[in-house]
Write a structure and sequence with these properties.
Blueprint (H helix, E strand, L loop, with lengths): L7 H8 L1 H21 L4 E9 L19 H15 L2 H11 L1 H4 L1 H5 L7 H11 L1 E5 L5 E8 L4 H21 L4 H29 L4 H41 L4 E3 L8 H23 L5 H27 L2 E3 L1 H43 L1 H36 L5 E5 L12 H26 L6 H8 L9 H16 L1
Antiparallel strand pairs: 1-3, 1-6, 2-3, 4-5
Helix pairs in contact: 1-15, 2-15, 4-7, 4-8, 9-14, 10-13, 11-12
């Protein structure tokens, strides 16, 4: 049992000093033996930068370039790092120099399981470190190898193989396939354009929507003019009917007025009759009505009356009629109205024919609108496909040339370094680690042994447990003196 009090840990260490010393020396000695017999390895390092966007290859895109997000960039850098650390790349590097040149010990002592190449690839990958920073696009490559002259060559060969593999993985353009696809898209576009032009030529269409809009506008104008013409025609016809009905009730001739030389004789006879009648009235007042003078006057009045009647009869036989001016005016209005009706009827017919032609054209266009839309859509799809494939083909062709020239987004910014001192094992760090680790493990061993020991070690432990004062205590030195005396007495 262990009591944690001042100088208690030192007491425990001194109590188990042999075990502590053995553990500490074993660890330090093991580290020393490791440093003495470990094969020294040299480290060669290189750095690559992965470029993105138009910094890696010429920009041949026809559209707006897509901005990459940080996560996309990170994934690309990690993918390139995975290519660098792939087993296939490690095997290709080993095969380029030969297994015997790189790992002669594996050739001399083949593994019991697997092939020597498998063991060599495993050892190569164990000594290879491919690291990527947290926020950058730089890849660091380091390789440990016993041969300091061969280590940078291996790293350089690994980078060369990586660049070739990176081109094959990321920039495989398939230009021959794209060329065939572009040719097929071009033939499809030609067929679509030919079908559309044939349809337009058959129906005499240049711009479908524009023509429909123009026809609708024309139909509105023609319809408005037709309604105006029909209204004018209806008014003319109605006026013509009214004039025809009115002219039937108006006489064509009227009697000539009684004036002029033609009625002078009648007027004279009536004047003479009036004078005689007036004299008769005067004479009848003063003379005897049966007297000869009055009788003569009566005879003159009777002759005057007969003359007046004779004149009237003669005048009635000889009177003439004149043309009725009202009838003539109505007739002129009727002729004018008939002419207006005929003139208004002609625009109605022309405008009606134009309206029928426009409606027929609109119906034809509407009936074939679906076919026109299908042909137009097919032509647009074929054109967009051709443009897209053409751009991809140009991209593939340029990338193919880049592959031939071995131009890739990955660029070496630090060539493999030539090591001048060993990188493994690290002697100072190993010794310090062994000393510190040995001390910690020795202390842990002492504490573990003390925890397993149920004996009292110090007087303080007894006093603490029994809660009684200590009268006396005997140290180990006295036991050793007694043993020495016993041993001396035995010799006598």
């Amino acid at each position: 049992m262990m009591q944690l009090m001042p100088f208690g840990l030192l007491t425990i260490l001194f109590k188990h000093k042999r075990a502590v010393t053995r553990v500490f020396l074993a660890i330090v000695l093991g580290a020393g033996l490791y440093l003495l017999f470990a094969t020294p390895k040299y480290e060669s390092m290189a750095q690559l930068v992965v470029r993105f966007g138009d910094r890696s290859i010429p920009d041949i895109s026809r559209g707006q370039p897509t901005e990459m997000t940080p996560s996309d960039r990170r994934e690309i850098v990690l993918a390139n790092a995975a290519i660098l650390g792939s087993p296939d790349l490690a095997q290709a590097t080993i095969e380029a120099f030969g297994l015997k040149s790189i790992y002669p010990d594996i050739v001399a002592n083949p593994p019991s399981r697997g092939t020597p190449m498998d063991e060599a690839v495993k050892q190569f990958r164990d000594n290879l470190v491919v690291s990527v920073g947290n926020e950058d696009n730089v890849i660091s490559v380091s390789l440990l190898h016993p041969d300091k002259t061969l280590a940078p060559k291996l790293v350089q060969k690994l980078i060369d193989l990586y660049i070739a593999r990176q081109s094959a993985v990321y920039q495989n353009p398939q230009s021959d396939f794209m060329k065939k696809e572009v040719a097929d898209a071009n033939a499809r576009l030609d067929r679509a354009q030919s079908a559309l032009e044939t349809f337009k030529g058959t129906w005499k269409i240049t711009d479908y929507d524009t023509e429909v809009a123009d026809l609708l506008k024309q139909r509105g104008d023609v319809d408005s003019n037709l309604r105006t013409a029909q209204a004018n025609l209806a008014q003319s016809v109605q006026r013509e009917k009214q004039l025809q009905a009115l002219i039937k009730s108006v006489p064509t001739h009227i009697p000539a007025p009684a004036s002029g030389e033609k009625y002078r004789a009648l007027d004279d006879a009536e004047t003479r009759l009036s004078d005689l009648t007036s004299k008769y009235s005067q004479m009848s007042a003063t003379y005897n009505v049966n007297g000869p003078a009055v009788a003569t006057l009566k005879a003159g009045i009777a002759g005057a009356k007969a003359d007046v009647e004779a004149r009237r009869v003669e005048l009635s036989k000889r009177s003439l009629t004149d043309a009725n001016p009202v009838y003539q005016n109505l007739q002129e209005d009727l002729l004018r109205t008939s002419a207006d009706a005929e003139s208004n009827a002609e625009p109605v017919g022309i405008l009606s024919d134009q309206l029928r032609a426009i409606n027929t054209r609109l119906k034809d266009l509407q009936d074939h609108r679906g076919q026109f839309n299908d042909l137009t859509r097919e032509e647009q799809i074929a054109e967009n496909t051709y443009r897209s494939l053409s751009a991809q083909y140009e991209d593939a062709r340029v990338k193919d040339n880049l592959n031939l020239q071995r131009i890739t987004p990955a660029t070496v910014i630090s060539a493999p370094t030539v090591p001048y001192k060993t990188a493994r094992p690290r002697k100072l760090i190993t010794l310090l680690t062994a000393i510190v680790g040995g001390g910690i493990l020795a202390i842990a061993t002492a504490l573990a042994l003390e925890a397993l020991d149920d004996r009292f070690t110090t007087a303080e432990q007894v006093a603490y447990l029994l809660d009684l004062p200590i009268l006396a205590s005997f140290g180990l030195r006295q036991r050793r003196v007694v043993r020495a005396l016993i041993a001396q007495g035995a010799t006598r």
